[in-house]
Design brief:
The chain is of the alpha+beta class. 24% of the residues lie in helices and 13% in strands. The protein is built from six helices and six strands. The chain has helices at residues 17-24, 59-62, 90-94, 116-119, 126-130, 141-158, and strands at 3-7, 35-38, 47-50, 101-103, 108-110, 136-140. The protein has a two-stranded antiparallel ribbon. A hairpin with a 4-residue loop joins strand 4 and strand 5. It is globular and about 50 Å long. The two termini are 28 Å apart.
């Protein structure tokens, strides 16, 4: 896999096309594994896509007592393996982003796994392939670096200062997420 996920929250228009595409993806059993959240519903209508951050040291995998959550060689954190998951829900409580969800009917955890069946062949994940505003992109590492440099320059021009004390510090650089 030579490409990475890049999220640009300010571009999200709240259309939820990413959620619809995720539901339609094969093997998802008509359940979306990504979400569209409001930044602050009381103050604005600004939304942002919420996907699994594919953490370097994922808390969901660390707290899993049955080792059901596997990490691929490329660093993609997969959903819990059905044959190993014991349904304890530690992963849902351990994730600082609230990404893993638990299906009580199926007694298993599910979360975004970056459409690993597609991305391992450098095919864009379903959510990125349908995003009309390019808030979710599947791009080359060099392209992401250029976008991050441009964002940093724009933040300096606009007077925004990056913060170090937030949850985004756990997100690996290859994912390409930035925050204001």
């Amino acid at each position: 896999m030579n490409k990475i996920m890049y999220l640009e929250f300010e571009r999200c228009i709240g259309c939820k096309a990413c959620q619809a595409a995720c539901r339609e993806c094969g093997g998802h059993d008509a359940k979306e594994r990504n979400y569209v959240e409001y930044v602050d519903f009381m103050e604005s209508r600004q939304t942002f896509p919420m996907l699994c951050m594919q953490c370097k040291d994922p808390a969901c995998a660390r707290v899993c007592p049955s080792n059901a959550i596997q990490i691929t060689a490329e660093g993609v954190v997969l959903s819990a393996m059905e044959d190993k998951c014991i349904g304890c829900r530690n992963c849902t409580f351990g994730c600082p982003f609230g990404i893993p969800k638990f299906d009580f009917e199926e007694n298993k955890m599910y979360k975004c796994d970056m459409c690993y069946d597609r991305t391992k062949h450098d095919i864009s994940p379903m959510c990125a392939s349908v995003c009309p505003s390019d808030a979710i992109r599947f791009i080359d590492f060099d392209e992401m670096q250029a976008l991050r440099r441009r964002r940093t320059q724009m933040n300096l021009i606009e007077g925004k200062k990056p913060t170090e004390q937030d949850k985004w510090q756990y997100v690996p650089e290859f994912f390409g997420v930035y925050s204001d």
